[in-house]
Amino acid sequence: MKATEVPQIAGAFLFEPTPYADERGFFCRTFDVDVVRSVGLDPAAFVQDSVSRSVRGVLRGLHLRSGAGEAKLVRCSYGRIFDVVVDLRPDSPTYRDRAFFELSGETQTTLYVPAGCAHGFQALSETADTSYRIDREHDPAEDVTIAFDDPELAIPWPLPPALMSRRDREAPSLAEVLKQSQQRKES
């Protein structure tokens, strides 16, 4: 397994395994403590594993957490997804930059999304299972959602959205979210 820095998002990494394939299918390591440590991350910091199943065209996001934020490892374990990260850390050298990836069950590549970055994805295959390893317990009071179609972000979603949660469909713009965040800091 190798770790590669994502140049568009400071502190983001791709962890690319080396699958062993034969007539039975494949086997690969999807998490390696030593490789995670080698890029300065604490593997013991991850406290929760989750999985979502989506059908083709489902769009989830853009999500992030307020407060201390939430770092996560994201991997498409089955199918294919178009994955998006937006850096919303004001002190980051890549503030407001975006990065796009195709993650798939074929490659089993894992994306590390630093705390303070928004994340979302769209299922490209008929079924896509997406696994998350998260560094904080979920607190719904800290959930923040940004409009997937915000013109300022201009994310090139590859398919028309087929299904979305109400929260994602009605999410405010990035400008509104940043304004609300600033108002909370000032009060």
Q: What is this structure, in a nutshell?
A:
The chain is mainly β.
Which secondary structure elements does this structure contain, and how are they paired or packed?
Layout (H helix, E strand, L loop, with lengths): L1 E4 L7 E4 L3 E3 L2 E3 L5 H6 L9 E8 L3 E7 L6 E7 L1 E8 L10 E7 L5 E4 L3 E7 L3 E8 L8 E3 L20 H4 L4 H13 L1
Antiparallel strand pairs: 1-2, 2-10, 3-4, 5-12, 6-11, 6-13, 7-10, 7-12, 8-9, 8-11
Protein described:
With 187 residues, the chain is mainly β. 12% of the residues lie in helices and 39% in strands. The protein is built from 3 helices and 13 strands; from the N terminus they run ββββαβββββββββαα. The strands form 3 sheets. A 6-stranded antiparallel β-sheet has the order 1-2-10-7-12-5. β3 and β4 form a beta hairpin. It starts with a strand and ends with a helix. The mean pLDDT is 94.
Order of helices and strands: EEEEHEEEEEEEEEHH
| Oligomer type | single chain
Q: What does the overall shape look like?
A: globular
Sheet with the most strands, sense and barrel status: 6 strands, antiparallel
The largest sheet has its strands arranged as 1-2-10-7-12-5
Unreliable sequence segments:
none
Give the distance, in angstroms, between the N- and C-terminal Cα atoms. Answer: 46 Å
What percent of the residues sit in helical stretches (DSSP H or I)? 10-25%
The count of strands amounts to 13
Which percent range describes the beta-strand content?
35-45%
